[in-house]
Amino acid sequence: MSELKISAQPREITRRKTRQLRRDGLVPVVLYGPATETKNLQVSGRAFDRLLHSGGSSQLVTVDLEGNALNVLVREVQRDPISHAYIHADFYAVDMSQEQQVSVNVHAVNQPAEHTTGLMMYQAMDSVEISALPSAIPASIQVDVTGLTLENSITIADLPVLDGVAYLGDPDETVFTMITTRVEEEEEEEVEEEMLEPEVVGREGDEDEEFEEGDD
After folding, report:
1. CA angle (121 as vertex; 52, 150 as ends), nearest 5
2. Residue 211: its pLDDT value, please?
């Protein structure tokens, strides 16, 4: 279970006036869900940034609201396209007895045994969709890629079994695979082309031009 926490305060400022909140380093938040009534809140922008970088975009988060603890999932985050400042966020107060569908990051562990020159590992999916109780949502999915080869990719069906976690999507969808690089092939082709290129010693008529220049 996640130990992520953040403090929030009730918010009276709404709509366009929330610009002043953002200038003051605060992020407007809407809290909703089956475990609470809808409320307008605000959180520290710095604290919210640290929360997201610690895995708060998918994990269960405990919100301290004036001494009351609420279990939430961060459902939506809006950012300014230019400054990337946080504009708004939604906190979904969960029922701890109901499974939730979230996207969890996937990370490779170790290196493929077949990691030789001309081959490289390619991660086709940065995250996977799962279904789990809020308390069982993992911080990330750690995948051992030691056995990854050019012939055998790692699919959703090959992901590690985690208690209380069900992977969603097509089981045959590729998560990690090995691909060939064309660097060596291109270098070999360049060498072959250079060897086949005829050496230019002189152009036809060069001797006549030199003779004519000497007559002047």
Report:
1. 145
2. 40
How many CB atoms are located within 10 Å of the residue 149 CB? Answer: 13
What the block records as the tokens of 191 is 């060498």
pLDDT, tens only, 151-203:
999 999 999 999 999 999 999 999 999 998 865 555 555 555 555 555 555 54
Q: Hunting for tokens 């007895």 — which residue is that?
A: 97
What one-character-per-residue DSSP string does 88-139 give? EEEEEE--TTS-EEEEEEEEEES--TT--TTEEEEES-SEEEEEE-GGG--S
Domain with CATH 2.170.120.20 in the chain: 101-191
According to CATH, the superfamily of the domain at 4-97 is: Ribosomal Protein L25; Chain P (2.40.240.10)
pTM of the full predicted structure?
0.75
Q: Is 101-191 a CATH 2.60.40.2250 domain?
A: no
According to DSSP, residue 157 is labeled G
